[in-house]
Amino acid sequence: MKNHRKTSEANSSIGQDLPAQRPNWKRLLPIAALIMGFLAFLFFGASEYLSLSVLDEKAAELSEFVEINFGLAVAIYFVSYVLSTAFFLPVGTILTLSGGLFFGTLYGGILAVFGATIGSSILFIAARYAFSEFFNSRLGRHAPTFRRKLNQNAFFYLLALRLVPIFPFVVVNVVPALVGIPIRTYVISTFIGIIPGTFIYAGIGAGLASIFSADGKPNLNVLVQWEFLLPLILLACLSLVPTLWRPSRQED
User: Fold this and answer.
1) Contact yes or no for 28/130 (Cβ under 8 A)
2) Count of domains forming the chain
3) Domain for residue 196, yes or no?
4) How far apart are the first and last CA of the chain?
5) What is the overall mean pLDDT for the chain?
6) Domain span including residue 123
7) What secondary structure does DSSP assign to 123-156, as a single string?
């Protein structure tokens, strides 16, 4: 009986070790698929069709399509936003502006927030599956300590990074996956953190209709002016207060 039990335990342990023995190339498949989507976007020159000038040219035609096929238009826009974020395409700004233009600030903003959150979560999961094991092997025995210290304030750090887009969106999507940020923390901080900026962009997009109808040219330089950035910076600073408050409470 003892031998039988030892044999079953050994088989069980072997079964538990099997996932770690999978070839590395299998782990790369999800992220490789996303990279292929990005390369296809560049190869077919899709970026030429996602610009303010094209949006101006096609605004009336697209608005009519949205009015006639509202449900289909919402589905197309939402799926496009999810995929463009997952494929880390540099079209988030123009898509958010388009959402505001065709669906209004409220609905356009809501669709963009959910689309960006889902798309970035797909990229997060793919990056973690592909590279987290390699990253942890480089950290070695320091990995548990590193993760524990980082996760103490991970939510607030990510929230601050989302509120003020200092780093490229794709970087903030991938790096947390490598350092072991929990998926729940990542999703919630992403969802909350992108709301202010997304609705500002959607609001600007909603105002493009009057600019286009008057044959005017939109000035997006406002997006890098202090009047736009200062509220987001203040929100980011506010989100970091708990990370400063918690150590002082622990010392007491």
Assistant:
1) yes
2) 1
3) yes
4) 56
5) 76
6) 28-40+49-251
7) HHHHHHHHHHHHHHHHHGGGHHHHHHHHHTSHHH
